[in-house]
Fold each of these.
Amino acid sequence: MAASIGAKTLANLALAEAGLDEIASRLPNPIGQPNLTAVAGAIFGMRVRDLYVGFLDSCEGRSVIAPLVLARPLIELAILVRWIRDDAEHRFELWRAHSADMDTKAIRQVSEHLPRPVGDPFHIDQFSTMLAEKDAWAAKARKEANRESPERVLPGLTDMIQSIEQRSKADGHGLWQGYDLA
């Protein structure tokens, strides 16, 4: 009996998939060829959605402090996205280099604190080429942005808000309020 229900469900799903594919073929492609705006929008959109869903879930919990814990990354992301907007192409690439730099630091910390045996596919030596490429990318971005600090590729949040404030007092003021809240 269970096998026949499973087969019937699979048949219904196949029909539904075919119908959805047919409907989708008639819809226009909203993005077209991927470009910087589409990629940035997709990346930041996914992060914001995940943070917001976490924020809503935490609001339903018993802890009073839980929503505030997730408010901080939401505000940081708002500051970052607004800062990137003022020079989108350059600053998005700078953010990507910063992310790569943070990845390499995390991988090295994990390998230091949770060492793997030599020959293990997740041993740090297996990642040496990728780590070297990301290190070079971050160093190049640091140099192009005139950032001498080896700690960060991006400026700090307060520096970002000050930069935003130079272009828009209102945006800067609102971001300072959010920053102070979190």
Note: The chain has a mean pLDDT of 82.
Amino acid sequence: MLILAILSASNALGDTTIAKLAPVKYAVLNEYLPDSVFMPLELYVGTFNAGGSAKKARSLVLFDTSKIRGEIVNAYLEINLKFQEEYSSYIKKDSYEIEALKAVQAWDKAKWSNGNSLGSDRIGGAVLGDAGQYNIQNLGSLVIGWRASPETNYGLLLKGASESVEILKQIDSIYLVIEYEES
């Protein structure tokens, strides 16, 4: 379940603070129902079989980085997957690579028919497997850019690297983790 809150904790690494930001806005783009708005409790990414044909699911997430004060040392996306046996015909344990793309325009009530082209440059990726935690590293420069020009923060689009393989992943929670030195 996505928790819409900012969690932060001090760290014993000196003056480094770790902020764990939950999305302030999110949506699932579902090719099977392209004109429907989906904001379920979980996010999905990958390809699934619906009515005998392969359909894609992508997720959009937006994080508010405006409250981070200080010099950013590191930033990464923390993705927590879950696997429920009752959904095993859709959700697969197989390894599957996902990509994080920088969203390039504002989105509200995003759906497949109007949100499919929101992603631009690939900024990272991760190979996801069974239930557990996975990270997409090296997002520091992206977050620094969002802080320098907040009007460019449209969030991230998560999608399968190869959407021709029928593997769907269910994201139980996702956070933008930012390590920074307070000023």
Note: The radius of gyration is 16 Å.
Amino acid sequence: MGNRILTTAVLLIIVAGTFSCKDWFADLFEDEAYTLTREDYTGQEIRTDGYYYSYYKSGSDLVGVTIFYRNGVVIDGTGGRSLSEFDEVFSNGTFYNNNKNNKDIWGIFKVVNNEVMIERAIADGLMHRLAFIDYGKILNDTTIHIYKNKESYGNDVTTVKDDTLHFKQFSPKPDSTNVFIK
């Protein structure tokens, strides 16, 4: 009888402790929220009738793509294909179907004073995503120079970048509808 009471008491303490730590556990697994708010883009500084691309390295035909939408949504952080391969997967719908549930590529952008800020929540390799902002200088409506990446919260980590995005007019772009950006 004594062991049964002791076991019950220990289980009650464990259950009570677990519920009291519920917020701590939620924070551990919850993705960081965006610091930018989605707003319709009505400017002319960048183009939205296609996509921007940057080469992974000199001499390679593999690119990464960034797609800006008039509704303030951006697809960014995807790559590893040639321009013609991207055109094909954009046209046939494969890209959207394979990525509509991939939170890592969806984000918000904002243009202020000839600079673009692109915020995404990126998996940190553990249990949740950290919010980061890429900062880019708009050189003209077809060229953007991404010069730094900064954590949106916390320890103020900034990384120097040197990526040039070039514009390619293209239609149809993948749909911007997703469950991550409201």
Note: The radius of gyration is 21 Å.
